[in-house]
Amino acid sequence: MKDLNINNLLRENIKNIKAYSSARDEYKDATADMVFIDANENPFQSNVNRYPDPQQSKVKQRLAEIKGVKTSQILLGNGSDEVLDLLFRAFCEPNRDNVITLPPTYGMYSVLADLNAVEIQSVLLDDNFEPKVEEILATQDMNSKILFLCSPNNPTANSFNSHNVEELLNNFKGIVVIDEAYIDFSNSDSWLSRLNEFPNLVVTQTLSKAYGLAGIRLGICYASEFIISVLNKIKPPYNVNQLSQDKALERLTRLDEVKKEVDSILTEREILITKLSEISFIKSIYPSDANFLLVKIDDANQRYSELIKRGIVVRNRTTQPLCENCLRFTIGTPTENEKLIETLQLISKS
Ligand SMILES: *Cc1c(COP(=O)(O)O)cnc(C)c1O
């Protein structure tokens, strides 16, 4: 909603909360010859004896350049998981508020809701894995604070129709989080370019997938300056460690390498679709806008254990709504993908 007062959505205790002021926050204009005896650090130099920049300024500057947003519209977290948790803590009153999720989708939204004692209202996607806009808006009540849209969605692999997303952005009276963990594999545009239009829009991205840095845990939140300022007040002061900041910056200056890997994954995705369609027990391969494929097969539990026995670990999604007998395959290296196909062929003949 364009004329929503975001301050009114905040939890009462968050409205006036004071951030912890770290030593590094209080004195930032460091020059090389200054003496820093303010933070009880070990003074002997290694590359990590000092606390890291609590605002991760260099990484944010680079992201701002790449994405065309202001650094004040960016918050970084220890993975998207931390960013999502901060959103719960900023907006959802435990034991009173609720969030809306659209299963089948990423499991962390409901885990974090449980953790924060926030009720979950689930509205299943439709048969084409699209949001049921009317039903979602009818489900919303006074206490519905966040709507989670995962696009491209995990595990269904599709991006949501932009008309549906826009309807929700225009009519949902709370925060709309669009989780774009897989946006770099997608043909659809990021909603980042619409950030300034919707005060309730939060876009999350991550370095864990296309950027190949799952191990450093770096999640990104883009939102209005107001929302970012609130999240900044409640985040742990040094939530992104020095090694992660260094590694992220290094990768973000070599985008040509990232692009090469993404291109390879996209090429492999098409090859894999062709080859999978020749496996007799695969009933359908859902269209993918991500770096994985959701496939419907004859018996997911049986095929899952047959694959495990032959050393291939896939994700069994059969217990998820609308995903009966579905497995999820991440696109691997060309060699890994060939191994998957060979193994599936072997299994289908036995
Ligand atoms: C993998 C994934 C993430 C990434 O989470 P990180 O904590 O940043 O590693 C976020 N959202 C979805 C939907 C994912 O599948």
Automatic annotation (TrEMBL):
<dbReference type="InterPro" id="IPR015422">
    <property type="entry name" value="PyrdxlP-dep_Trfase_small"/>
</dbReference>
<dbReference type="GO" id="GO:0004400">
    <property type="term" value="F:histidinol-phosphate transaminase activity"/>
</dbReference>
<feature type="modified residue" description="N6-(pyridoxal phosphate)lysine">
    <location>
        <position position="209"/>
    </location>
</feature>
<dbReference type="InterPro" id="IPR005861">
    <property type="entry name" value="HisP_aminotrans"/>
</dbReference>
<dbReference type="Pfam" id="PF00155">
    <property type="entry name" value="Aminotran_1_2"/>
</dbReference>
<comment type="pathway">
    <text>Amino-acid biosynthesis; L-histidine biosynthesis; L-histidine from 5-phospho-alpha-D-ribose 1-diphosphate: step 7/9.</text>
</comment>
<dbReference type="InterPro" id="IPR004839">
    <property type="entry name" value="Aminotransferase_I/II_large"/>
</dbReference>
<dbReference type="InterPro" id="IPR015421">
    <property type="entry name" value="PyrdxlP-dep_Trfase_major"/>
</dbReference>
<keyword id="KW-0368">Histidine biosynthesis</keyword>
<comment type="subunit">
    <text>Homodimer.</text>
</comment>
<dbReference type="InterPro" id="IPR001917">
    <property type="entry name" value="Aminotrans_II_pyridoxalP_BS"/>
</dbReference>
<keyword id="KW-0808">Transferase</keyword>
<keyword id="KW-0663">Pyridoxal phosphate</keyword>
<protein>
    <recommendedName>
        <fullName>Histidinol-phosphate aminotransferase</fullName>
        <ecNumber>2.6.1.9</ecNumber>
    </recommendedName>
</protein>
<feature type="domain" description="Aminotransferase class I/classII large">
    <location>
        <begin position="43"/>
        <end position="344"/>
    </location>
</feature>
<keyword id="KW-0032">Aminotransferase</keyword>
<keyword id="KW-0028">Amino-acid biosynthesis</keyword>
<comment type="similarity">
    <text>Belongs to the class-II pyridoxal-phosphate-dependent aminotransferase family. Histidinol-phosphate aminotransferase subfamily.</text>
</comment>
<comment type="pathway">
    <text>Lipid metabolism.</text>
</comment>
<dbReference type="InterPro" id="IPR015424">
    <property type="entry name" value="PyrdxlP-dep_Trfase"/>
</dbReference>
